Amino acid sequence: MRGREGAAGRSAAMAAAGAVRLLLIGVQLVGLCGAAGTATATLPIVINTWAFRKATETAWRTLQLGGSELDAVEKGCGQCEIDQCDGSVGYGGSPDESGETTLDAMIMDGNTMEVGAVADLRHVKNAIGVARKVIEHTKHTLLVGESASLFAVRMGFPYEDLTTQRSLSVFSKWLNQSCQPNYWKNVVPDSSKSCGPYKRLEKVSFDEGTISQRNVHNHDTIGMVVIGKSGTVASGTSTNGGVHKIPGRVGDSPIAGAGSYADSTAGGAAATGDGDTMMRFLPSYQAVEYMRMGTDPTIACQKVISRIQKYVPKFFGAVICANTTGSYGAACNKIPGFTQFHFMVFSPLQSQPAEQVVDCI
After folding, report:
1. What is the rounded distance in angstroms from the CA atom of residue 139 to the CA atom of residue 27?
2. Which of the chain's termini has less CB crowding within 10 Å, N or C?
3. Going along 28-148, which residue ranges are E strands?
4. Bridge-partner residues for 356, per DSSP?
5. Can you say whether the dihedral through the CA atoms of 143, 149, 153, 156 is positive or negative?
């Protein structure tokens, strides 16, 4: 009798333990999925666009070693500049119409709302590092072109050639294809057939635009948001811009509220994609404002994408969002060749960076 009671007791205990394990798993799943596809993490958290794992690891390691949120953003995005992430960040990628690689970057402090940014930066590889120096050593927000390069040299950055054999090859191939595709319109000779030089067409016509040439294998920016244990938010971006862009072009990446935005009272966001379109809508600022009003991060990202869709249905772009509780999400615009968006997340719930995927809307 006593043996049967002992066996029954052990069975009951095992069943109870199993139930507890199932309950814990259920709690974890709810925590990870959250509402409307939003994931709930714990602080600190690093989130960045695309599957740039090494950048995520570098930012996280910087935090773990006692660095600030700004340090983590600078080092994380700077890692992509070193690695030339997908050829769309850092030196040796996206040559403009003259064959030159130029860089754009920004960094934002969500505590002070200070921003440092550089655009059309030439001959200096560490663009986000220079952007950080704009915060630390000037009363300005944005420096551009060769003057930004001179500032960088004064700050101790080496003056280097950003051209590589790869970028020269890309440029040469483009020239041999009659400079197709390019960013000109309403000019003569016909920019769809010729390299120019171009002159303006007297009669200007308007069209609805075409789908960007970029896709999941040809993207253009690292955008990163870091939120520390205390809820302090920092964000940043780095890119070498649109390939074959008209010299002097600046996209959304170095523009506060467009490329990224950070506010320690609400959260942070960063955007990637067709900067010429996205910068007109300040998507990162708008996403943070939605989160300030209590909107779920995923919904905030989706609302931003939906707003742009109303005006430019075929745009290529995505947004990542994170609030000060550690919840995060992302959204992207669905076009042919781009139906899912990949991004990276690192939080205390994980032992390594986790690649996340979201279906585009």
Report:
1. 48
2. N
3. 39-40, 45-49, 103-109, 115-121, 142-144
4. 343
5. positive
The structure tokens 């943070």 sit at 288
Query: Please, how many CA atoms are within 13 Å of residue 195, restricted to the half-sphere of its CB?
Result: 13
Active site residues: 221
Within 8 A by CB and 6+ apart from 101, the residues are 91, 92, 93, 94, 95, 162, 163, 167, 240
Report CA Rg, the chain.
23
3-state secondary structure of 26: helix
pTM over 0.90: no
Amino acid identity of residue 34, one-letter, is G
Q: Give the pLDDT mean for 242-270.
A: 97
CA distance 216 to 341: 8
Span 18-37, pLDDT tens digits = 443 433 333 333 334 434 46
158-175 pLDDT, tens digit each: 999 999 999 999 999 999
Calculate helix-pair angle for 69-83, 53-64, nearest 10 degrees.
150
